[in-house]
Each structure stands twice: as C-alpha cells, then as structure tokens.
Specification:
Elements: E1 5-6, H1 10-21, E2 32-33, H2 40-52, E3 56-59, E4 85-90, E5 101-103, H3 116-119, E6 124-127, H4 131-134, E7 141-145, E8 162-166, H5 168-171, E9 179-182, E10 201-207, E11 213-219, H6 229-247, H7 255-266, H8 272-293
Parallel strand pairs: 1-2, 2-3, 3-4, 4-5, 5-6, 6-7, 7-9
Antiparallel strand pairs: 8-11, 10-11
Helix pairs in contact: 1-2, 1-8, 6-7, 7-8
C-alpha cells in the first residue's frame, strides 16, 4: 500500500479528483491529507472518496496553513455510515486522542515509553525513519520519507536532471511494514507561495530497468529573469516530449503525462498549478499501476481502473 502525504493544496487535491473521475485510481493508494485551507475543493475531494469508498486519511489537527485557525468552517461535509474517510492525528504529546492513524514527527514526544498507551490501541502508525519510533510495538507501521530531493532554486534541478526517488515499493513487505509513504514530488517543508518563477521545471517519475522509481527534471533554459513564463514552460516541455519519444516503450502513458504532452500541440502555458496537478496525477497513477499489476505495471489504469 502507498500512503502519499499531501498538504491538501488546491492542485494536489485536483490531481486526486481527476484520477477518480477518469477511473485511473487504485484502492491500494490511501492518501494522508493535511488540510491547509478551508476550500470547496477539499470538501469535494472528501466527498468523492466517501462516495467511491476509497480510503482517505484526513488529519484532524493540521500543523500548517490557515485551516487550523478557524473553529467554524465555511465548507463542511457529511460522511456516510462506515465511511472510507478516516481520522488521522499528528502526535504532539502522550495525551493524543484516538484516531485511525497516528502520525509521528519531530514535534512528537522523544521518550518512546511515554507513547506506549497510544501504540497499544489498534491504530496504524506513520513514523519517521528513526530508531526510537521503529521500536514501537505496533502491528501496522509505515515509514514516512522525503523521497523527492528538493533544490533551493528551481533552476538547480537542471544541474542533475535524473534522481533516484525510492525503492520502498519493492521492499516494504520484507521490512515488516504495512506500506510506504512519502511527500510525493514535494519536499517535507510546507511552501505555498505563488508567483512567476525565474525557471520552470516539470518533474516526472518513472521506473528504471530494476523497478526502482526515479524522477526526471525537465527545466527551462531562459532563466535569467521571470519574464515570459509561457516560453519557459515550452522549453521544459520540449525536453519532456523528446525524452518521452525516445523512451516510450519503457514508459506508462498516464493521464497526467498525456495532458502535459497535449500542451505541446496546443503551444499553451496552463499555469504552474496545473503543471503540478498533472505531474502529481502521473506519479500517483504510475504507482497505482505498479501496485495493481506488479511486473506488468505497463498495463496501466486507463482500461483497468479500480
């Protein structure tokens, strides 16, 4: 099982929505969403997972964003009985209330003994890759890693265009874990500021010959200023298109990848948020296909959506 950790930003949530609506979703992907904004998109996403009975863990005590600032929400939802949308909590102290999933981070208590009352409850644990959490006697544990190697500046991704992402999908069962988790094609640090960028990068994950998951970075060239965002996007997109045509026999044509490629034919810049939406949609569909089909992952989800 894959438990992607998402900060619940607008275009991240739209990526989840579009995969479900196009029957490209796998039940073996169970997102953990930390709400950062009280938005109609969040409401729609929660209701969509509930309606289709797809598992979703919604963090009840978010640590970042504006969602946590207001007790009364503008956008609320009603869940069905025995809903697939479950409650998750970030463990801040040993008095943490019960939840279906408990998430430990750098703010969690450092003394493992004080956490035992929480662990004794039949709850899934998401933990950092640290010994003091690994030794907790829980039946269901997932390690949350930062698989995406973030750079300080977008242009810096051009200095190394191909990075290792993860091989946890190959070994998590042997490690005695329930699943694997990461921050997808984002870093651990929460960042939600928009605006033009001096460089544009498209991040596309793919499987190598050994089924390791890697990520390619396609970066614009005209990076001296923030002028002409459309040109920067086309520069990056042309590199993606060229790479795809050279390697298409070894790649999965996902909905996200198809949509990005279509912008090359349209010569259109859809905006940075939309680029992120389709890149994330590609990543999730790719992993979903692997979890459904294993070595036959190139069957894809397009005709076999679960």
């Amino acid at each position: 099982m894959y438990y992607p950790y998402l900060r619940g930003k607008q275009f991240d949530l739209l990526a989840l929505n579009v995969l479900i609506q196009n029957q490209r979703w796998s039940k073996k992907i169970q997102p953990i969403v930390e709400p950062v904004r009280d938005s109609a998109t969040l409401k729609k996403t929660v209701e969509l997972f509930d309606q289709h009975q797809f598992p979703l863990y919604l963090i009840d005590n978010p640590q970042v964003g504006t969602y946590k600032l207001f007790d009364e929400k503008k956008h609320s939802w009603q869940l069905s009985e025995n809903s697939s949308v479950k409650k998750a909590k970030i463990v801040e102290d040993t008095t943490c209330a019960a939840a279906d999933l408990l998430l430990f981070n750098e703010r969690s208590p450092r003394n493992p003994q004080g956490l035992l009352p929480l662990v004794n409850k039949k709850t899934m644990l998401v933990i950092p890759d640290q010994g003091r959490f690994r030794i907790l006697p829980a039946k269901e544990k997932i390690i949350l890693k930062e698989s995406f190697q973030t750079k300080r500046h977008v242009a810096d991704y051009g200095t190394k265009e191909d990075d290792f992402f993860t091989d946890d999908h190959l070994y998590y069962l042997e490690d005695g874990l329930t699943g694997f988790s990461d921050f997808t094609i984002d870093g651990r640090r929460y960042f939600d500021k928009g605006g033009p960028s001096r460089a544009i990068a498209i991040h596309i994950t793919y499987f190598d010959a050994y089924l390791n998951l890697r990520v390619k970075h396609f970066v614009s060239d005209s990076n001296d200023s923030a002028k002409d965002q459309g040109l920067k996007f086309i520069e990056a997109l042309e590199k993606l298109v060229s790479w795809y045509h050279r390697n298409q026999d070894q790649l999965l044509s996902t909905l996200g990848l198809e949509e990005l490629m279509n912008y090359a034919h349209q010569n259109k810049f859809p905006g940075l948020g939309t680029i992120k939406k389709w890149s994330l949609a590609h990543h999730l569909e790719l992993i979903g296909s692997y979890l459904e089909w294993g070595d036959h992952w190139r069957r894809g989800m397009g005709k076999h959506g679960i």
